[in-house]
Design brief:
about 120 residues; alpha+beta; two-stranded antiparallel ribbon; about 10% strand; DUF742; DUF742 domain-containing protein
């Protein structure tokens, strides 16, 4: 069984080795109010509490503003589990969370085109 370097709890053949909700200790509700588009950024403060490997990976992704959705994609975890992990990081002061800013309309055509352009660049 080989475990890839990019994910401590993933196996090439088997996939995820533990259930996603085990990562959040069965918690399904974050303590911080987070949206999928909330921007998360590391504060530079080291967490004083013991955090799991997913917390560390999530924190490493937040050197610049990173959305909760992006963190979930990188961790390969459901959004609700990712929100719990990120809220743990917010609670210990390791990251800050900023809600998405919608200027006029959240479905503004220019915003949707920017998202589509970004997705095309990823392919």
């Amino acid at each position: 069984m080989s475990v890839p370097q990019d994910g401590p709890l993933l196996d090439d053949a088997a996939g995820r080795l533990i259930r996603p909700y085990t990562v959040s200790n069965g918690r399904t509700r974050p303590t911080a109010v987070l949206d999928l588009l909330s921007l998360i950024m590391a504060t530079g403060t080291e967490p004083q509490t013991h955090l799991g490997p997913e917390h560390s990976v999530a924190l490493g992704l937040c050197g610049g503003p990173t959305s909760v959705a992006e963190i979930a994609a990188h961790l390969r975890l459901p959004a609700v589990v990712t929100k719990v992990l990120v809220s743990d990081l917010v609670d210990c002061g390791a990251v800050t969370a900023h809600p998405p800013a919608f200027h006029d309309m959240p479905t503004d055509r220019s915003l949707l085109e920017a998202v589509l352009d970004g997705l095309r660049r990823q392919l």
